[in-house]
Amino acid sequence: MERLLQNNKTYTYYDYPLESEFEKVIVENSDAIFGKNTIYVDIKKRIGKSILTIPDGYLIDYTFPSNPRLYIIENELSSHDPFKHIGSQLLKFAISYKDSGFEIKSFIKNHIAGDSLLKEKILNAIKLSEYKNIDELLEALIFHKPVASIVVIDKSTPELENVLSQLTMDTDILQFQTFCCEDDKIHKFDPFNEEVRDIQETKFSKIDASDLNTIVVPAQLQGFKEEFMQNNRWYAIRISASMLDRIKYIAAYQTAPISAITHYAEISRIEKWENTNKYILYFKDKGTKINPIKLESKKKGAAPQAPRYTSFAKLTSAKNLSEVFI
Q1: Dihedrals φ, ψ of 188, to 5°?
Q2: Which of 243, 256, 265, 267 is 20 to 30 A from 41, comparing alpha carbons?
Q3: Hey, where are the domains in the chain?
Q4: At 271, is the secondary structure helix, strand, or coil?
Q5: Residues whose CB falls within 8 Å of the CB of residue 90, separated by 6 or more in sequence, listed in order
Q6: 196-324 in CATH: which number?
Q7: pTM for the whole thing?
């Protein structure tokens, strides 16, 4: 069993006995988990007509102020059956949501109106958007944009990813775990919109999140030749739901000994990758060769170890690798 060590104290994994206890911790730490540019609506109301269900909560995400989005929240323990419990619950959400738009709008609006802090937060977000008021924002989120979901769970499994990959509703999986040493606790979790928040929270970053439209992937030689150049695709990429309709380009960073971004391609479509919660990106055409954007020899840790976002303008104007991401 995994353990954490801090200040000579060993923290052991805490197995939540009740979902209600797990959910309480999620709500208490919602700002850290979901980020400052979100509003967690902790409200449980039954929705649906022929199929009834009760979401654990809702998240209004305005990471991209001009394109906010609503998520249904499902807080779960891995001890629950991924198909019978989690999968069927999310399927019920997707079906019931379509029948319950006016109800959802009403109780979210009333909930925000009764919480002065939430109201102030959403009014500040509206100032950065194209919407005039809370009513207009909720109208757009619920009736004019596709709903997505977030599953917060103590342990993600391949079985869960398999089940969620069958749903048409975009779903993010966030793993949240707790470790204890006597009465002291440490939480370990996957942040919502992690890659985008890394850019927003970097002190010296000059990239505006609204300009993010390019994903840079690390590629070893064989994979680069076979997939990127011959098959005109790249697969098994984990992409948050908020970025799926924003990615327009993909760039390949060839790992050592080349250590440079050498090609890019325009994206034609993005699909689920097999029975996983990852994606495959298909290109419109062959990859385009560019002047190598090289890793500076003295920049330790600057080489992408996983997919990273940037803007196409940054990519095409960069003289070295670090300029792509700042």
Answers
A1: -120, 125
A2: 243
A3: 3-192, 196-324
A4: strand
A5: 72, 74, 149, 151, 164, 167, 169, 171
A6: 3.10.590
A7: 0.90
